[in-house]
Records
---
Amino acid sequence: MQEKVDVILKEVEEAKANTQEELEQFRLKFISKKSVVGDLFAELKNVPNDQKKAFGMKVNEVKQAAQAKFKALIDNLETSIQGGASDHEDLTLPSAGHTLGSMHPLNYIRSQIIEIFERIGFNVADGPEIEDDFHNFTALNFPENHPAREMQDTFFIEKNPDILLRTHTSNVQVRLMQKQKPPIRSIMPGRVYRNEAISARAHCVFHQVEGLYIDKNVSFVDLKQTLYHFAKEMFGKDTKVRFRPSYFPFTEPSAEIDISCQICKGDGCQLCKYTGWVEIAGSGMVDPNVLANCGIDNEEYTGFAFGMGIERISQLKFRVNDLRLYTENDVRFLKQFSTLH
Ligand code: DAH
């Protein structure tokens, strides 16, 4: 009897578990109810009375040894699974190092634009990407048969009444004017969607920043000065800015804003199509109809608005000429911006 106990004790002491399975085998053999230790307890009743006490103590000793060993085996196995040092590892090797992520260029440009406008008193507003016809088109004075409403430009989610993916951030202007009394001085960055085939020069998802300033006596001079300031802050103080007459349904008068080409500094190159100028934004005085559509008294208030593409600004800053790069998440592209913060 005594011998049998000693054999079991020795087995417990020498046991090893390199895998979960081996650990489970140990548990079944030495810890569970039907284990060999359990059998020893069952045999207690066959031991002569005068030896019962000594045998009982011995079996208890085996039980405790088995439990202690089980715990040690668990600890051991966990450290080796978590990559603890084993005999095969060379602790003197240098570590593999950590790869840090970097800021996406569009996020960087977006936060630069926000910073510039925040410093002159604009706050940031947000609005939905899934929009109704009223906020994306009707309130903004789009005539019923305007081509931008047609299927080739807009992703419709539902028809009659129309629910769509916003085609520009101008929808946030409308929402802002509906819920806030002037003065309003906000910029509205966001993602917009158009039903375009994806190529180097067009994408169905891109980003804009909208600007809106509504107060008493806001004039075209305020618009010009604000955007001069922006262009010089963003591209440097030698940057030239020009306003070109244009048309948008929601502004009157309207203007497109060009800056001197950042690549050739005005000498003429492929990017500026040899004109020396590149367009960065659309803008204008908010059409009185739009103010009225949004519940703002157009006798008392005037305002200006502008909208620019973040990808466009990024193209001029970083010379990224293929729009697809922004959404492909190729680390070879993204890594090139690792110094931005
Ligand atoms: N919504 C125009 C677009 O997507 C951009 C724009 C032009 C916004 C003039 C404006 C603006 O607020 O005044 O092309």
Note: The beta strands are 123-124, 130-132, 156-158, 163-165, 184-193, 205-215, 241-248, 251-260, 277-286, 302-309.
---
Amino acid sequence: MTTTLISGGTVVSATGRTEADVLVDGERIVALLEPGSRLLGTDVSAGVDRVIDATGKYVIPGGIDAHTHMQLPFGGTEASDTFETGTRAAAHGGTTSIIDFAVQRYGERVQDGLAAWHEKAAGNCAIDYGFHQIIGGVDADSLAAMRALPDEGITSFKLFMAYPGVFYSDDAQILKAMQVSRDTGMLTMMHAENGPAIDVLAEQLAEAGKTDPYYHGIARAWEMEEEATHRAIMLAKLTGAPLYVVHVSAKQAVEQLAWARDKGQNVYGETCPQYLYLSLEEQLGASSDEWGAFEGAKWVCSTPLRSREERHQDAMWQALRTNDLQMVSTDHCPFCMKDQKELGLGDFRKIPNGIGSVEHRMDLMYQGVVTGEITLERWVELTSTTPARMFGLYGRKGVIQPGADADVVVYDPNGHTSIGVGKTHHMNMDHSAWEGYEIDGHVDTVLSRGKVIVDGDQYLGAKGDGRFLKRGLSQYLI
Ligand code: URP
Ligand code: ZN
Ligand code: ZN
């Protein structure tokens, strides 16, 4: 087994930072040593196979992106990153685990949906991966099948209050699924938007000739997110289900979560980089020579980008500071403009919903450290430690400590990352939602279970390095 020493760096955790060397033996971290690699007064650096010099750099637990959609069939097409391309891109950006969503559709068996996802991912991933289960058809069969999921290492499921006719669950179905959540300890993840009402608004806008991508954001008004978030909270309260609301973008939805948490309810929320940085006016309303007003299609996702005039972005950053929101995931669901987003030319309702960001989350959130929005420790907490705790991976993942998997990122705060199109990103997309973003930091080295998979800009990993993660229950259950 290879031994590796990461020396001279500042080890950052969710609770503090310390000057320490990290000793890795095979796939695991075995010790944190005093600077100078001293263990009980003895210098151990001479005996290791490899030394990574992290002087002046941060040494952090690998990022965990708990919300991705590789190869998701959606919006009349399929998300453009495969498990191979998407996880390789994630690795480049310092993410060493993803949790993707296996899909069960109405009329399909949960077991078959899960098996199909294992088939897509097995042998293809660059980094470790787990699954949540989308339940797109809540009925007696799927409710029974859900109870067996924790034994498979699937300890969370997602329901949709949006997308009628696709993944939508009505309140009766949500109530029944939440009862399973209460009984089993599985976390209920909720896409909280009032889909039926949104569809009416969208139809009325389209009939009035308002067909540009911008109107996607108008139809999916924040009131629709606030209302659904409140409804999900009340159904969770009634059933006793633990609730995790995904891709929160409206400040009013955060207020609902904060209100419920203040009352002692076990509810959580994630936001995504797009809701921190991007907006209805600047992105959904964008126009270019190439695409005209259809340029905004690049940023069509749900929940939608919100108004900067209404200061939703500021509210998201604030909620991350105050712990009204606990995590940042990407909701990585990439589509190319050519042949994919183009499906919605002339009708925003037909634009496949999704943005690709899996490669940039760690950098984009680090930029929040640079600008003073969050602390260094909170960066690690939001992107790695809490995801591990929330989704039953903590101890193995999300922390640098003896016994943990050696998923480690050496991050250079004096480095620089320019995000552009094509050669500067590794996602399988013909554009970037983040083109032009400049990051005052750089992912230098990435280890996945002790193997160096990224060294500078060089990828040293291989398809199939990543293993399936059987997850335990959330640490946040009460
Ligand atoms: O626009 C999005 N979010 N696409 C992916 C599916 C979902 O709702 O998470
Ligand atoms: Zn969703
Ligand atoms: Zn999603």
Note: The chain has a mean pLDDT of 97.
